[in-house]
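REVIEWER CHECKLIST
Item 1: Sequence provided? yes
Item 2: Single chain? yes
Item 3: Sequence as submitted:
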Amino acid sequence: MRKRIISLVGTLAMTVATVGCQSSPSATPVRYDNVRFMDVWSTYTHCLSTGETQAALLDANKLREVSLVRLPQSTLDSLLPKKLKSMVSEPASRLAVDVRAMAASCSLHAGDLAMSAGEPDVAMDQFRDVLQNHGGADYSYYTTQAKERLSHLALTLQAALR
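Item 4: Structure as written out by the authors:
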């Protein structure tokens, strides 16, 4: 009888421990992620569809800020020893798109609008921002575009000085 009670208590403890680990709410609710995604997507589509430099610049800044936001540090990360922390990867973004790529694309568009509006300094700032914040193989398309546009802008400014 005593063995049965111990067995039952052990089974109950295992069940509570297993269910307890799985029943905690997620740190970021799915609904919040969806709202955040829709805000980011709306900003991105507005940026690409606007013909106003200032509106595109505001959208580019907003997307840049969102792309730089880091996910909150998990409690597991603070409990791990330093040697194990290097083995744990960053949690993946729950967004279905690459916000950094969206920010780069919007910055290129804002730079193009600034060039068309006769604001070469603003255009240069946008293209340089892409080069500074979007290095690496994943963003090579955007950095190549920014370099080409900076070269074109430099040639245009030289021709205007002659």
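Item 5: Key structural point noted by reviewer: Helices lie at 2-22, 30-49, 53-68, 75-79, 82-85, 99-116, 120-133, 140-161.
Item 6: Recommendation: ____
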